[in-house]
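Work Package 3 (structural annotation) set out to generate three-dimensional models for the target panel prioritized at the project kickoff. During this period the team completed the workflow that converts sequence records into discrete structure tokens, so that structures can be stored uniformly alongside our sequence database. As a representative example, we reproduce one entry of 508 residues exactly as it appears in the project archive.
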Amino acid sequence: MSANEYLRRILNARVYDVATESALEPAPRLSARLGNRILLKREDQQPIFSFKLRGAYNKMVGMDKAVRSRGVIAASAGNHAQGLALAGQRLRAPVVIVMPVTTPPVKVDAVRARGAEVVLFGDSFTDAYGRAVELQAERDLTFVHPFDDPDVIAGQGTVGMEILRQHHFPEHGPIHAIFVPIGGGGLAAGVAAYVKAVQPDVKVIGVQTLESNAMAQSLAAGRRVTLDDVGLFSDGTAVRLVGEHTFELCRQFLDEVICVDTDALCAAMKDFYQDTRTLLEPAGALAIAGCKQYVEREGASGRNLVAIASGANMNFDRLRFVAERAEVGEQREALYAVTLPEERGSFRRFCGLLGTRNVTEFNYRISDSRTAHIFVGIQVDGRQDASALAQTFSAAGFATLDLTDDELAKLHLRHLVGGRSALAVDERVFRFEFPERPGALMRFLTSMSPNWNISLFHYRNQGSDYGRILVGLQAPAQDAEALRHFVAELGFAFQDETQSSAYHLFLG
């Protein structure tokens, strides 16, 4: 279809029977930090917590009633499924949804709660799509594509229409760019088609994850590219092949596609929470992550930038991972492997180099009689600060490896430092708690100057009121009373865990 035809369809889209005109609101904390006016298009406030109901309903309401009554079918990672289920409920039409088995339970349950039949099949959208096509033929159902359909694209395009209508141009100046998340490309295609028809000077920038960047690769190649695999963290955009319609529209109207990594996505989720006290799903925060990356790359300042918060169907089980990776994504935490000589005083000398910096993690297990390898996380003020700190360690004679961007280290090694050690003879293990305040860990570390060798040390800042540390000290039996007195004199709440079954099973 022509651009004018898409514009006409967007202007006449039937979405407001079920959708609301979501707010376009400033993000004050993020704006202040980035030096630009960041506006959030709150599609997370829709009845299904996602923009997807716009396209789904617009497609279904335009169907012939007899066709609709036979039932519709779709393949979806979750949000399109919820939109279609809501549309079917509203229009009294049977709905069948084929979803990848990797879809978060919160989305599966939400679809079933609206009366739709759910079929779980395959690991990705493409697998689910293939099964949906088979069921369509078997049951004589009408297929509603989650993104590659003109009516679906038109429904999603109403987001762009609202943004331009809601932005007060004379008061705040023009919009410089609108950032749109991309999976299959329906939202990006619809928003770009409308915005470029009405205000062509406004940039429309798509955002994808590095692990699911089918649109970015397709635009670079000049043809649709099928990915072998897709990352599943941002499950709402885990699409191996973009649509024919969406590819052509994005090729014609998008200014560019930015790709972000998982850490940047987690940091964007935290940014959104700090401004709104609302949790987005990973795909919902893509536009914010892309906006931040654009500002850093371009050195942008004083501009009006809009990020579409596209969905909030967050799987609660992912919160622990998000919280841990957000600090690295915001470049506020650096991770290092540091080698110290296994000799008295080296541990204290290393602590002296840290000064008043906040330590987020500290893992150590004795394993060699000559050198000690520690895994340490430290709060920093960006990548340059992290590099300077690594140079400080190296200059002091401590071999240092920066692990901040090492996926193996971040996902696994940090939890596997340690284990049993043949050198941990006469080890006594204590668990300490202390009020978590800035500098509290450093005060604890400097007080740990015992006459006995430290054979084990584990600490991770969990953002709670109390810091928790596990320490191993090598003390022969005749020093038991002196060791007990030393530990008690530290002034921290503690528990002797030397007889713990778990300690003996994994560390003793």
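The chain has three domains: 3-50+151-325, 56-146, 331-506.
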